[in-house]
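Take a protein:
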Amino acid sequence: MIYLILGLFGLYFLLILALLAGWTKALAQPSLSDKTASSVPAVSVIVPFRNEATNLETLIRSLLAQTYPVSEVIFVDDHSVDGSLSVVSKTVQDHSFMKVISSKGEGKKAALTAGIECASGEIIITTDADCIHPAGWITGMVEPFAEDRTKLAFSAVKISGAAAPLQSLEFISVVATGVALFGMGTPSFCNGASMAFRKSVFLDVGGYDGNAHIPSGDDQFLLAKVVRQYPDGIRFINSPESIVTTSPQPSIRRFLSQRIRWAGKWNAGAGAPSKALAIFMFVFQFACLAAWALVLSGISVRIAGFALMGKIIFDFVLLFNAGTFLGERVRLIPFLSLQIIYPFYVLFIGIDANFGRYSWKGRVLPANPKVPTQG
């Protein structure tokens, strides 16, 4: 058994080394900041929202502070019941380039599709209603599109660590993995809170056709479609001015519901690299728990302890690099706490994402929706 555990740890160390190499390569991309705004087509920002009354005013202020002359901002209401629509309507009425529409369908993908359909810009930028954007965000998002080969671009998103250090650390690992996979030449997932693409490309790949029934994954599924059709058309925006900040979930229950919602997309069309990574990480958590058991029982303190110490060091190096780029400190106590909690967390999410249900913004949904056959 110990050899199996050590083998899994060895594969994990190789994975982290590959991710570090991919991360370094992604951040070393040349900037397109010398391109002029006049070489970029008109831009439309799409903001789907549901029950975000407490966040929308802050979001709008950050959009009004943008240095780039955006063509329009379209807010799409996904049947809010908390007064969000009134908040948006009241706030944007003095700004002619902002407008509010209501989605006829249900869910984020339907709201995004409604916004994209009525958008006048060739470049579509999507974000979430609980985000705050630096003043240079849109400028950074549109720069890659000065080159015709760019079809889709994404930047990093972070959770401010002051209020929720464990959520922040967990999210840093997600961001680091997504960016590193891009750097390795296998872009597999990004975050729709800071994502841009050509409207013509969205229509060309069929938008969310084939996965519209899945509550989450608007970003990942669209990325996968674009990668298949335009494998050289993806860009990661490595400018710190394009990093978007999102809010932590206010409770453990909301946090777990969000992660179960995200995990549901892995069963519903994720690409081979993403699925392989998810399966390996799930299996590896058993190896971590087994290693801790061997150490605590005194059966294999030296060998299992060495493996666990190696994991802690490798994890810290990856998170430290990603956290430095994101402007987030990797604090020692939350980091060590996460090392203990993370195996239980991954196993819980993995199991519940296959067999459970979750509540999200007033809707109760199956974590693993049945997937129709796709052509």
Observations:
- The first strand starts at residue 43 and ends at 49.
